[in-house]
Amino acid sequence: MASAEIAAEHERILREIESTDTNCIGPTLRSVYDGQEHGLFMDKLEGRIRNHDREIEKMCNHHFQGFVDSITELLKVRGEAQKLKGQVTETNQKLQSDGKELLKSMDELRQCRLQQRNIATTIDKLTHCLPVLEMYSRLQEQMRAKRYYPALCTLEQLEQSCLPRAGGYRFCAIMAENIPVLRTHIRDVSMSDLKDFLESIRKHSDKIGETAMKQAQVQSSRDSDITHQQRTGSGKRLRREVGSGTMVESSGGSPNSEQDSGILDVEDEEDDEVPGAHDLVDFSPVYRCLHIYTVLGSRDTFESYYRKQRRKQARLVLQPHSNMHETLEGYRRYFNQIVGFFVVEDHILHTTQGLVNRAYVEELWEVALSKTIAALRTHSSYCTDPDLILDLKNLIVLFADTLQGYGFPVNQLFDMLLEMRDQYGEILLKKWNLSFRQIIDQDNYSPIPVSTEEEYRRISGQFPFQDPELEKMSFPKKLPFSEFVPKVYSQLKEFIYACLKYSEDLHLSSTEIDDMIRKSTNLLLTRTLSHCLQYAIKKKNVGLAELVQIIINTTHLEMSCHYLEEFISNITNVPPDGVNATKLYGTSTFKDARHSAEEEIYTNLNLKIDQFLQLADYDWMAAQGGGQASDYLSDLIAFLCSTFSVFTHLPGSPIEHARLPGKVAQTACMSACKHLSTSLLQLLLEADVRQVSMGALQQFNVDVKECERFARAGPVPGFQGDTLLLAFIDLRQLLDLFTQWDWSTYLADYGRPTCKYLRVNPHTALALLEKISRAMKDTSRKNNMFAQFRKNERDKQKLIDTVVKQLRNLIAAHQS
């Protein structure tokens, strides 16, 4: 069984050796040598080799005859082949000999055909290369001439059309390598030109704005002339179209040459003295750079850079100088820069497609407008010169009209001008306050002397004064008022003109202008002029004559108020009797001033009377009174007489102008008499005066009689009867009661309307009686020489005590 398995294994190994490549037989043989039966295997291998040898021999024997036959035939063919070889060799020699000329001709033909092909190829290549070289040459010329946009177009055509057709030559590769470099160079150079342009317009925006504002001013003057010719004299002022046609829109397409670089064509206007603002600026760097960046595909980058740089410039332009408010030129430069900035932006807006848009420009303008208004409010608040404010207002109007002509909204500027109107009014009031003070200080408070008809007409032209009676008088003559009146009236008109100047060109209606002027004039009258008049009335060293002249002056100014009303109506074309028309308060102002002057007259007179009374030196214990008035009272009466003569001898028509001074004189005279009466009574009842003798009372009575004589003499005409004496009625009844010692009548009739001593107050009578009682008691102690006199004095003292008791009872009864 084991031998069978070994035989089978050996058979398998032999088959594997027969069928396997010799390179892979090693493992098979190794398996044989690793076994124990390799001798048996070798025997079996020898037997297999012998079998194969027998099979090979059989096969060789089977094919040997055919091999012999083949060799025999091959030997026959060799002879024929030798013969054929000789023939072929001979034929070849003949053919070689005969084909030499043909080969030579064929070689020549081949060379000719090759040259023809090369020439055709060369022509074809040159046909493609020459345009490249020509275009590159043109590109170099354009670069040398700094015509960068055409160069960029040439570069694009060279890259996209010519180089691909030319092929892969070395010079083409060099050109292709240089194209990005050239593009970068063109972009950098164009950006450099743009930066130079931005710097240039930043420096010259002042000049650009100045030119634009001059152009707007010229247009404004023309419009004003046309409007003045067509105006009917009423209605609302129309807004003027400023700067129309200033900018000419150009196509924003890509230019074909450097000459078509976006500079605006300006119409020939030989008559215009002021060129267009855009004529001063070469905008070609902007257009060139825009087109270059568009071609390079970086338009967004360019737009972003341009807007960013212009925003920075806007911030610089809108920053005012710290001393801008000192001169008008500072404001002018500030406005010129802003106008120049927005003229450039407006031009860019209308001549490019999308570099800036309307929203961007409007946003810039809103920022600029707010900052400009804030700066103007700040700097104008420092201004104290009305002329500078007025010039600034005109400059702002021109600034607004200029920008309005370019389509920018400027309503906020006009609103700010209306706000500045209040500041302008306050400055005017301060200026006119100084003018009025100067007029007051320089006035001589004397009627104006007029020597000739020319002088009279000149003053009548300054002040609306009409007096038929005065006109009939011959020269020389005097006007009732002083120089103060025509000067103040002229100043009032000048103030109205100043207000009117500010209201011009503010796009206000005539009614609004009229209302503004009237309100400002009312402020001037009620505040400034009123204070100045009070200053004139209250200042030191103002005499009664000056006060009287102030009364006359204010009277004439009051009568001229309706002329001021007409004057305002004439310059504003608004009737003064309109429903909403503001009335002037001049009448009340001058009335108040006149009343203050009158009160000052009364006060000054009373102060003078008090000064004289301070000189009174009564001997209250005098034994008997003198026969004449006291010296101080005589001086006081003389002063009053001379004072009231000023009232009664005032120059001017007695018919029209003496009425008011007469009334003032009467009031002043009555006031002075009442004050004198009251002061004399207070002098008599002073607490320091504890004793009053009958002799002193008699002297006091003499003084009062002197006062009554003065009142009775009529120092001022116009009093009816003894009206002026009523000022001393209280004092007279009191003195009569004591001098006549008529106590029975006083006590019996007290309280009755028909009482003889109706004006005698029981308190006053009691106080004076007690002083007399003290004086009599003191005298009784001193005079004890005669008994009978002491008895009479004792009787009188008892009577006084009885009257005192009755007076006290009377006072107590009335108090209860």
TrEMBL record:
Biased composition (Polar residues): 247-260
Domain Exocyst complex component EXOC6/Sec15 N-terminal as annotated: residue spans: 44-213
The organism's place on the tree of life at top rank: Eukaryota
Alphabetical list of InterPro entries matching this protein: EXOC6/Sec15, EXOC6/Sec15_C, EXOC6/Sec15_C_dom1, EXOC6_Sec15_N, EXOC6PINT-1/Sec15/Tip20_C_dom2
Occurrences of domain Exocyst complex subunit EXOC6/Sec15 C-terminal (ranges): 412-771
Keywords assigned by UniProt, alphabetized: Exocytosis, Transport
This protein's GO CC annotations: exocyst; plasma membrane
GO biological process: Golgi to plasma membrane transport; intracellular protein transport; vesicle tethering involved in exocytosis
Region (Disordered) location: 212-262
Stretches of the chain forming a coiled coil according to its record: none
Gene3D superfamilies per record: Dsl1p vesicle tethering complex, Tip20p subunit, domain D, Exocyst complex subunit Sec15 C-terminal domain, N-terminal subdomain
Pfam families per record: EXOC6_Sec15_N, Sec15_C
Task of the protein: Component of the exocyst complex involved in the docking of exocytic vesicles with fusion sites on the plasma membrane.
Family: Belongs to the SEC15 family.
Identification of the protein by name: Exocyst complex component
Organism per entry: Astyanax mexicanus (Blind cave fish)
Top-level taxonomy: Eukaryota, Metazoa, Chordata, Craniata, Vertebrata
